[in-house]
Design goal:
Distance between the termini of chain A: 41 Å
Largest sheet of chain B: 7 strands, mixed
Number of helices of chain A: 0
Strand content of chain A: over 45%
Number of helices of chain B: 0
Strand content of chain B: over 45%
Largest interface: A-B, 24 and 26 residues
Number of strands of chain B: 11
Shape of chain A: globular
Helix content of chain A: under 10%
Order of helices and strands of chain B: EEEEEEEEEEE
Largest sheet of chain A: 6 strands, mixed
Distance between the termini of chain B: 36 Å
Oligomer: heterodimer
Structural class of chain B: mainly beta
Order of helices and strands of chain A: EEEEEEEEEEE
Chain lengths: ~110, ~110
């Protein structure tokens, strides 16, 4: 069964810093890996999707990488802003996504 | 194009009652996924449905829980004889043609069992 782990569980950074969130998964037989953000009391918003055949995806200040062989993905956020404060979740899988427990990010103005 | 719509947003039930959670996928999406989120825990997959078919229900508890996605109308997650441990946020997601695409999530239904 797929297990997804996210490190760190919480992260606090000053505004403007670049940061990296980590995600690891145990079963490399995935269709894709997706990064989401979740604001308190809300649903998940899709940020980036990396197909299993891809190495990375970029959207604005976000860049996600995927290394299937080592079972790892990273989400890089450049020039962080207070509006980036949220919980970030990664999901990996085939017919369905298995999620980690997330990284709670706080960007301090 | 409205997003994934879930209702109700909040549902309160007493132990032993039935809970019905509804999910209308995004327009043009025929694949629906249900997840449950317990406090301080991650999202747990429950069931994956396509119109009129259950594709994967490996995450569904064996008793009291059922799901459907009829040809017409929303997908329904039904919990019979609710217990306190069923209290959680239930999220629905949809995708256009399958699991190899972006998932779009609804805002969830918060179920509270008294």
């Amino acid at each position: 069964k797929q297990e997804v782990t996210q490190i760190p569980a919480a992260l606090s950074v000053p505004e403007g810093e670049n940061l990296v969130l980590n995600c690891s998964f145990t079963d490399s037989a995935i269709y894709n890996l997706q990064w989401f953000r979740q604001d308190p009391g809300k649903g998940l918003t899709s940020l980036l999707l990396i197909q299993s055949s891809q190495r990375e995806q970029t959207s604005g200040r976000l860049n996600a990488s995927l290394d299937k062989s080592s079972g790892r993905s990273t989400l890089y956020i450049a020039a962080s802003q207070p509006g980036d404060s949220a919980t970030y979740l990664c999901g990996a899988g085939a017919n369905n996504l298995f999620f980690g427990t997330g990284t709670r990010l706080t960007v301090i103005p | 194009n409205a997003g994934v719509m879930q209702n109700p947003r909040h549902l309160v039930r007493r132990r032993g009652q039935e809970a019905r959670l509804r999910c209308s996928p995004m327009k043009g999406h025929s694949h629906v996924y249900w997840y449950r989120q317990l406090p301080e825990e991650g999202l747990k997959f429950m069931v994956y449905l396509q119109k009129e078919n259950i594709i994967d229900e490996s995450g569904m508890p064996k008793e009291r829980f059922s799901a459907e996605f009829p040809k017409e109308g929303p997908s329904i997650l039904r919990i019979q004889q609710v217990v306190r441990g069923d209290s959680a946020a239930y999220f629905c997601a949809s995708s256009p043609t399958g699991p190899n695409e972006k998932l779009f999530f609804g805002s969830g239904t918060q179920l509270s069992v008294l």
